[in-house]
Design a protein that fits this description.
Elements: H1 19-24, E1 47-54, E2 66-76, E3 80-89, E4 108-116, E5 122-127, H2 128-131, E6 136-144, E7 147-156, E8 161-170, E9 176-182, E10 193-197, E11 200-207, E12 215-222, E13 228-232, E14 239-241, E15 246-247, E16 252-259, E17 264-269, E18 274-278, E19 294-296, E20 302-306, E21 310-315, E22 320-326, H3 334-337, E23 340-345, E24 349-356, E25 364-372, E26 382-387, H4 395-407, E27 411-415, H5 434-457, E28 464-466, H6 484-487, H7 497-503, E29 512-523, H8 537-547, H9 558-568, E30 574-575, E31 578-579, H10 584-596, H11 604-609, E32 617-618, E33 634-639, H12 642-651, E34 657-659, E35 670-679, H13 686-696, H14 699-706, E36 711-712, H15 715-738, H16 756-767, E37 771-772, H17 777-786, H18 788-791, H19 797-815
Parallel strand pairs: 26-27, 26-28, 35-37
Antiparallel strand pairs: 1-25, 2-3, 3-4, 4-5, 6-7, 7-8, 8-9, 10-11, 11-12, 12-13, 14-16, 15-16, 16-17, 17-18, 19-20, 20-21, 21-22, 23-24, 24-25, 28-35, 29-33, 29-34, 29-35, 29-36, 30-31, 32-33
Length: 816
């Protein structure tokens, strides 16, 4: 039940504040206590889960094949599950076909499949193409109380206007039972959320009227009556979302609003029709940052809402939020629950629905019913708290966690949602360039690093930390355990041990990248520098000016560009907690950036308006015009798996490798953890956590991850998974990657055929990895702030280095 929240970032890292002092004086808003070390009792909450999968069937037509379909869940009620399927049959081919005679409705797929909720058997199928007027389109299909409702728009070819109809069908028989025509377009606004409180239905939508600030509208109807429309607006802020509606009294409701500033709160009165802003301080207890779907509860003032890791109860009368279900409190994989939305519930029973898309195969739709069990089968086990950004755990890792919980006799892994208020503090509305995005990420990562660091120091942190490679501040023995003690001496014939070496900091493995990506400059191997795996700054300058004609594929302004080069070589500048920016390597990077990189990158709007080729891939993408883009000379790229590598090859005519970004020694590309694991140095249960680390290195887990087309440490798993990838891309997928943005595609015989030779080449790239990209955001922020004085000529490098080095050393000293 994942939702990545978007909120304003108002907290800026104060790098001069000592962490130990901050740890003693920290203030956390509504931060729950860590559950690490708690014993599970027989009456601890546990839910039995029942999964019901359904699969739609599109009827065959004579001499017509299905070309494309897409399923979406229309609804679930007490007896039925409804699925809305759209798509089309394949159109005729051949130059002699007379397109003027075609009836497009014959090729349109627009079906509603109704399934029995108890058995998943098909009850009936409704063909909306034949049931609706020929010029109608079903905008939305819903199921409520045994009735299917098709919200449809009808185009009038005489008046060139749209009118709207609601057509109702009986879910049991598929027969039409009612039809209502609606002329008011406002009633067919594209609604984002819908809530039912008694006889009232609330729907929220963006107000598209031209106003200075974006606003929202709440449409309230009673039965089939006309809608009352309440305008949710502010003269000072844009309103981007209404995450939920909460009942306060018989006719009073709370409407929170997400804005480009602080969250605003409004109360609407259905009796008077008034909308009144209320003081946000009255709702400081209401943490909505990670709320996904929400539904009204059975009692007035109660709402159930899905968050990053489970379900919370929001009780307006008692002004509290309470977690009443955690994804870890059942035997169903957290990954499966992550696809779900909440559709019904009470304290003891929840219904969630999900839809899983499998690349290149049919999607799966399912309904999960979760009922509170009488006793917890894990009674007696000790909870190990797991942190994952946004509460999200990748599917294969979720399965590994479930296996650990089933097989461990003494411990139980539980994902925490305690950090949802700071996990993503980026205000995306303020980002208009790659530089903006990188700066916002640095600030947010520094804040999140501090939160975790302070909790770890105070013994309140999680035991296991997943996917925290962007929190480089934590890479020392104060915060994290050296994982070498758990993985031992690995056989380089079985594992990519150079990846482990690249991930080590001062000889210690604080984060294990058991699945990874590789980042660098993808181009023909003939352009590589003398090292054969990368470029020195002088070599890259020549490559930039000659081969790339001055258009760099590394699309950042000077400050961010420098931090990228610095991070790739940070082992030269920070050793055993000592900072040294005075050496020739630092000066060489600084001089290269000063002489070859623009002060700032172009904004995304400038890049679009300039009609120039996108810098990220020279020669690949144009933003204007209809010309066919040429194959790339080079691209700043990340290879995530064998399929990703094939995709890159397709853009450079099948002849390319991944090289390191500019450095002083021509080192190879960067290791980018895709999935990583770390253990808190303050955990009392480090060895129990270490057993989970070992599990992630097993052949079974590594193979399952590799089959998701991502790179893994296990070389056999890498090879085995590559076979299926070769077969898929040679048969099915090659056209998608070779003819990127090219229409019409070239003949089949011009496509690249992939083989084991390509996998051999990728293996060589993996073996050339130089270092892990795990930036210390606090240090990089200092460089972003100080280095521009040198780049602009305001100060000489010695003056800038003196200040930057002093600030950086103080930060490291404060961490202990």
């Amino acid at each position: 039940m994942k939702k990545i929240p978007v909120k304003i970032l108002s907290l800026v890292l104060a790098v001069s504040v000592a962490l130990p002092i901050a740890a003693c004086n920290k203030s956390k808003k509504s931060r729950a206590k860590s559950r690490s070390g708690e014993k599970i009792t027989a009456d601890s909450p546990w839910f039995d889960g029942e999964v019901l999968s359904v699969k739609t069937t599109v009827p065959e037509k004579k001499d017509m094949k299905v070309e494309y379909t897409s399923d979406q869940l229309a609804g679930v009620d007490e007896n039925y599950i409804a699925v809305y399927t759209t798509g089309n049959y394949k159109f005729p081919e051949g130059e002699n076909f007379d397109w003027s005679t075609i009836n497009y409705a014959d090729y349109t797929i627009c079906l509603v499949s109704v399934f029995d909720r108890k058995t998943s058997n098909t009850v009936t199928t409704i063909d909306l193409v034949s049931s609706l007027p020929s010029n109608a389109y079903a905008e939305k299909v819903t199921l409520n109380d045994g009735k299917i409702l098709a919200h449809s728009s009808v185009y009038d070819e005489k008046t060139y206007q749209l009118k709207y109809i609601d057509v109702y069908f009986d879910a049991a028989t598929g027969k039409e039972v009612d039809r209502k025509e609606k002329m008011a377009e406002s009633e067919y606004t594209s609604f984002e959320r819908e809530y039912k409180y008694g006889d009232y239905t609330f729907k929220t939508a963006v107000n598209y009227e031209e106003t200075e600030k974006q606003s929202y509208s709440v449409y309230v109807t009673k039965g089939d009556g006309d809608a009352q429309i309440f305008s949710i607006k502010s003269k000072d802020a844009n309103i981007y979302d209404v995450p939920l509606i909460l009942q306060l009294g018989e006719n009073k409701f709370l409407v929170p609003a997400s804005t480009d500033g602080d969250r605003l709160f409004f109360e609407i009165d259905l009796t008077t029709g008034a909308v009144n802003p209320v003081d946000a301080k009255n709702y400081e207890w209401l943490n909505l940052d990670s709320i996904g779907t929400s539904i009204p509860g059975k009692e007035s003032g109660v709402v159930y809402a899905s968050n990053g890791t489970g379900i919370v109860k929001i009780d307006a009368n008692n002004k509290k939020m309470e977690e009443i279900f955690n994804d870890s409190w059942c035997s169903i994989s957290k990954s499966k629950l992550g696809y779900c939305e909440l559709v019904d519930g009470s304290d003891d029973c929840f219904v969630v629905c999900g839809q899983k898309f499998a690349y290149g195969s049919t999607e799966e739709l399912f309904v999960i019913t979760l009922r509170r069990a009488a006793t917890n089968p894990n009674a007696g086990k000790t909870i190990l708290e797991v942190y994952a950004p946004w509460g999200y755990v990748e599917e294969n890792i979720a399965d590994a966690m479930a296996k650990y919980n089933e097989t461990s006799t003494g411990y139980f892994l539980e994902v925490t949602d305690r950090y949802s208020d700071v996990d993503d503090g980026i205000d995306y509305s303020q980002i208009g360039s790659d530089d903006d995005y990188q700066n916002a990420n640095l600030k947010n990562n520094a804040v999140m690093s501090n939160e975790l660091a302070m909790d770890i120091l105070n013994g309140e942190g999680p035991d296991i930390l997943l996917d925290i490679s962007s929190y480089g501040q934590l890479n020392n023995s104060t915060y994290l355990v050296d994982l070498n003690k758990y993985i031992g001496d690995l056989d380089p014939e079985k594992y990519f041990t150079n990846v482990i070496d690249a991930a080590e900091i001062d000889g210690k493995l604080y984060q294990l990248p058991y699945s990874f990506m590789i980042t660098g400059v993808f181009t023909d191997a003939k352009y590589a520098g003398q090292s054969g795996v990368g470029f020195t700054t002088a070599e890259y300058e020549t490559f930039l000016k000659n081969t790339l004609n001055g258009k760099d594929v590394i699309n950042f302004g000077q400050a961010i560009y420098f931090t990228k080069l610095f991070t790739a070589m940070s082992d030269k500048f920070i050793v055993d907690g000592k900072v040294d920016f005075t050496g020739p390597e630092f000066a060489q990077l600084a001089e290269y950036v000063k002489n070859n990189v623009p002060e700032r990158t172009k904004s995304w709007a400038e890049m679009y308006d300039s009609n120039e080729t996108y810098y990220g891939a020279v020669g690949v993408t144009t933003f204007k015009g209809d010309s066919v883009p040429e194959n790339a000379v080079a691209q700043y790229a990340s290879i995530y798996g064998v399929g990703g590598y094939f995709s890159q090859l397709g853009q450079v005519n099948g002849n390319g490798t991944l090289l390191g970004i500019p450095s002083t020694d021509g080192r190879g590309p960067l290791l980018e953890p895709n999935l990583s694991v770390a253990i808190s140095a303050q955990s009392k249960y480090a060895d129990a956590c270490g057993e989970f680390v070992k599990m992630l290195m097993t052949d079974d887990v590594q193979m399952s991850i590799a089959k998701s087309d991502t790179l893994v440490l296990n070389r056999k798993a890498f090879r085995e998974a590559s076979k299926a990838t070769i077969e898929y891309y040679n048969i099915n997928g090659t056209g998608d990657i070779i003819y990127y943005n090219v229409y019409p595609p070239e003949p089949q015989n011009n496509k690249i055929k992939f083989s084991d030779k390509n996998v051999d080449d990728l293996e060589k790239i993996i073996l050339s990895i130089s270092r892990m990209n795990s930036a210390d955001a606090s240090i990089n922020i200092i460089l972003v702030e100080e280095m521009p004085a040198y780049f602009s000529g305001q100060k000489n490098l010695d003056a800038v280095v003196k200040i930057a080095q002093d600030r950086a050393q103080k930060v490291l000293a404060e961490r202990g």
